[in-house]
Amino acid sequence: MSPDILRLGGRTFTSRLMLGTGKFTDFEVMRGALEASGTQIVTVAIRRVELRAPGHDGLLDALNWDHLQLLPNTAGCRTAAEAVRVARLARAATGTPWVKLEVIPDARWLLPDPVATLRAAEELAADGFVVLPYVQPDAVLARALEAAGCAAVMPLASPIGTGRGLRTPDLLTTVLDGAGVPVVVDAGLGVPSDAAQALELGADAVLVNTAIAEARDPVAMAHAFALGVQAGRAAFLAGRMAPRAHASPSSPVQGVPRLPDPEVPL
Amino acid sequence: MRVNGDPYPLTPGLSLPALLHALNIDPARVAVAVNDDFYPGARIPDRALHEGDVVEIVRILGGG
């Protein structure tokens, strides 16, 4: 069997689980979780240095980047212009042109602005960025982002940090149908079965942060998510059975040993 | 001049490397934008700063 490779942004990956680095209690737990997850793509945020007491976070030192693709995000950006600016800062800070594009004007639900996201994606793709936009599961928007030159699309499962799982699987299916770039389900996954469900439907990968960082045992949960992703992907490749409206016996219907019973017709 | 969103007093002849030095920031661990120019911290130019310049100094943090 040929290896099951994820091709994304001109690179190849064997893991289909991307991890965020936010909310971990310390670097040791984060490092353990990243290792247990087997992830090869890791997201980070870009923030202003505090001018009064500049320190450094140490995140980059905490990880071995030889085998990890860094994926800086534009979290916190409310407009296309802000996101483009942060993406350019991120490229300068990390040396990678990869960017998880987030344009989110709404802090309560953290839902992305589709118009501004497309506008920023067009500008960044034209500037040589490998753009992975965070969007609602909208097939029309997804095709427009592909046409703009995005390397993937990242439809949300449910709002960021909610852990409510895939709330609109039918909409995700419309995004997957005919997608020309990898589809990465991002945000809202709570448990490994959510990740498995996304992969079973045909998603190419998932991105998880809070569900692992806020687990009682983040390292063990990272391992569990790795298994969920593998199970979901294997199931997708195997091809699910067709659902039926009514029951269908698995055992032969003929030859069942019966007692004579006047109440039950033969 | 503004640095990371706040007004910053411009002293005569202030350069970008001198600004980072004055702020006690290790250039290797940051990225810098001066208006629409973006620089890796390790490769900031010896550029003079002027009235009205908007300087952004950022670093990488954990995020999702």
In short:
Chain A is of the alpha/beta class and 266 residues long. Chain A is built from nine helices and ten strands. In chain A, the strands form three sheets. Chain A has a five-stranded parallel sheet with strand order 5-4-3-10-9. In chain A, strands 6-7-8 form a three-stranded parallel sheet. In chain A, strands 1-2 form a two-stranded antiparallel sheet.
**Helical run tally of chain B:** 1
Name the largest protein-protein interface in this structure: A-B, 36 and 26 residues
Going by helix content, strand content and strand pairing, the class of chain B is: mainly beta
Q: What characterizes the major β-sheet of chain B?
A: 5 strands, mixed
- The H-and-E topology of chain A, N to C, reads as EEEHEHEHEHEHEHEHEHH
| Order of strands across the main sheet of chain B | 2-1-5-3-4
Number of strands of chain B: 5
Helix content of chain A: 25-40%
Task: Please provide a written account of the structure.
The complex is a heterodimer of chains A (266) and B (64). With 266 residues, chain A is α/β, with parallel strands linked by helices. Chain A contains 9 helices and 10 strands. Chain A has helices at residues 27-37, 59-62, 80-94, 114-126, 139-147, 169-176, 192-201, 210-213, 218-238, and strands at residues 6-8, 11-13, 17-20, 41-48, 69-72, 98-101, 130-135, 154-155, 184-186, 205-208. Chain A has a 5-stranded parallel beta sheet. In chain A, helix 1 packs parallel to helix 9. Chain A is elongated, with a radius of gyration of 22 Å. Chain B is mainly β and 64 residues long. Chain B is built from 1 helix and 5 strands; from the N terminus they run E-E-H-E-E-E. Chain B has one helix at 16-22, and strands at residues 2-3, 6-7, 31-34, 37-40, 54-62. The chains are: A alpha/beta (266), B mainly beta (64). The A-B interface holds A 20-24, 30, 43-49, 51, 54, 56-57, 59-60, 72-73, 75, 85-86, 88-95, 160, 207, 209-210 and B 3-6, 23-26, 29-33, 38-41, 56-64.
